[in-house]
Amino acid sequence: MMLIRALKFRPALISEAAEIFDLHVASVRSLCAKAYPRNTIDSWFSDRDASFYLRSIKKGAVYVAELRRSIAGFIEVNPGEITNIFVRPELSKKGVGSFLLQNGLDILNRGKRCEILIEATLNAVPFYCKKGFRETGRGEWVSPTGAVKIPIVCMKLDRHP
Ligand SMILES: CC(C)(COP(=O)(O)OP(=O)(O)OC[C@H]1O[C@@H](n2cnc3c(N)ncnc32)[C@H](O)[C@@H]1OP(=O)(O)O)[C@@H](O)C(=O)NCCC(=O)NCCS
Description:
This protein has one domain: Gcn5-related N-acetyltransferase (GNAT) (Aminopeptidase), CATH 3.40.630. It contains 6 helices and 7 strands; from the N terminus they run αβαααβββαβαββ. The chain has helices spanning 2-6, 17-31, 38-43, 54-58, 96-109, 125-130, and strands at 7-11, 62-67, 70-78, 81-87, 115-121, 134-142, 149-158.
């Protein structure tokens, strides 16, 4: 509870692309490790570097949870979709993911769409289930170069007016 009170939700800055990339790598290596084979974890970031995040940051789709001048987690939102939520591994299970999701949903809810989709990593499914998402299918996330393929669960949050 104390930690949540100290968090600030704000758009990511272009200058934070490298910190976001490092957090993303650390989060996958730690929190996704049990749900995926080693070779999938090792290849996850093989075709990207920090510049991968610049396009989304520039269009205002990436937000961070700031904790005492560093980034505790980030979320990317696009119309009708939560694209990414990743929390710094040492801060997991302390409410940062819930904080990011709630703030992300608040942004999406301004867009008046009736459902919100996510392609969840396998390890994150129980988290999204707790938040009211339900599974609609299975699939693969394919990186822009096509070199990386990651099994995901398609999930949907129905909004009730
Ligand atoms: C999934 C993730 C975002 C959750 O963030 P978090 O800060 O740990 O989540 P919270 O602390 O807000 O947890 C909220 C609730 O979900 C539960 N929860 C979180 N992760 C869970 C998991 N892996 N398995 C089961 N329950 C989980 C918490 O116990 C908590 O339950 P409670 O409300 O009953 O206390 C975080 O673990 C993460 O970054 N994982 C790696 C990246 C990832 O897979 N992201 C999803 C990409 S789509």
